[in-house]
Amino acid sequence: MNNLIKAGVLAASLALAAAAHATPLYSAAVFGPGDAQITFDEVAMGANEVVANQFAAYGLTFGPGLRSGVKFADPANFSGQFLASAGLLEPYSIFFNNTVDAAGAYWEFDPNTITTVAAYYQGALVESYLYANSDCCNTTAFLGFQGIAFDEIRMSNLVDGTSLIMDNLHFSEADVVGDVPEPFSAALLGIGALGLGVARRRQHRAA
User: Which domains does the chain carry?
Assistant: First the structure.
């Protein structure tokens, strides 16, 4: 039984180690010619137009609060049309039509902005991190995720009244995806199944 438990703990540790490879993404260099890139010039939009499902044919839709951007500066890695927020605390979501294993975009924020960058899968949080911006408005940050399966990126400003803009979104669709539990949940499920097997073996011997 001890060997069985040790094997289960090892399996759980390996699951957690695999989850540790899921990391924030700070560069577009990981994407290649076979991956998708959305410049937001694919669809003609009016100034300050609400963005929702205009880009569904390109693999993504958007939650409330994002609009077509009105050019006010020349941030690095921005060109042509881009998207902008309304400057509220509400989260801004990018929904992917299919599950992805890497995605990110170039972002610019107001000075002294703290933003939560989060990845979700079927409405459940998979991974998140904080990004603090101290400068504006000619530098940009590439922010995203890689090494996990997700279908939504959610950005939340922690300072009311601040805004963000984004452009040149990249993503890579996952090859094969089934049900994807959270990493720690997967490990706990494995340990739970192990315990159930031990209990059943004891009952069988007692009989």
Answer: 23-179 (2.60.120.260)
